[in-house]
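Final report, closing paragraph on structural work. Over the funding period we assembled a curated collection of sequence-structure pairs, and we close with a single example.
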Amino acid sequence: MAEPQLRTVTRTQGNNEALKTGAVEPHGFRFAFEEVPVLVHAFRRMVRGLEFDISEMALTTYLVAKEHGARFTAVPAFLVRGFHHGAILHNPASGISGPKDLEGRRVGVSRGYTVTTGVWARSVLRDEYGVDLSRITWVLSGDEHVAGYRPPSNVVAAEGDRSLEEMLIDGDLAATVGVNSDAPELAPLIPRPQEAGFAALTGRGLYPINHLVVVKDELLKERPELGADVFDAFARSKQMYVDRLRGGAVESPTATDRMYRQVMELTGADPLPYGIAPNRAVLEALMRHAVDQRILSRPMELDGLFAETTRELTA
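Its predicted structure, as stored:
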């Protein structure tokens, strides 16, 4: 019997490269990869139309989707991690000199309020700088992937045709979160953000997860072992990447490659651990932040968010 071809979307990056080249092949099925140039569009298509069999997805999008009855379930292959101290930009000429100055002001957020980078960045503002997030008006440049989600009252849509970057430069916003900009007028609100991120890692174990993998529930019901098989393929591909990182064998390393290498040097550990057990603390932290920021109505049982055959797996 021919192995099923499963429509799959995942960004081509170091830890997934071996899946795309065929150096790692899954057991019992085949990936039928589809390239979606803007990855967040794939997230929306999965959430709203269940278009793929297997999909990379932002972590907070997944949590919100599950609370609203999404018919897919995650496997604990955490594809993207990073630090978000540098995601908050301001205009130094505006008089905003530090995070506490954002209270009582308007802060732009790229796309939706539930975007994972925004959740982590707001947690940094609260936990490291004592910012009262409820005293900020969050101005969104887009809508939410999960159409049924309703944000708190201090979240509003941007008006007019100007971008968040333009609004920040013009002084209509005190800062932005998640906006990529090369404008010379703008700078990170948190000084030396890369150093701040690594300090949070070594000082309090903060190592945010951004993306994981989800699989259609109907497929998991038909074949319960599929979750473990998907995890295994992503884990074997990741291990090849980590081995290359450890040996300094990544050609033309990107900023992400360099970040993972530095994490490895600081911690002496795998910079991309997969599985619930090695990530329980950071997953529970993200859940708390999502509830505190009124993205989730209540905490969800963590293990139940992952396919049953994957809950004890690590890699």
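The longest strand covers residues 72-81. The chain has ten helices and eleven strands. We thank the funder for supporting this effort.
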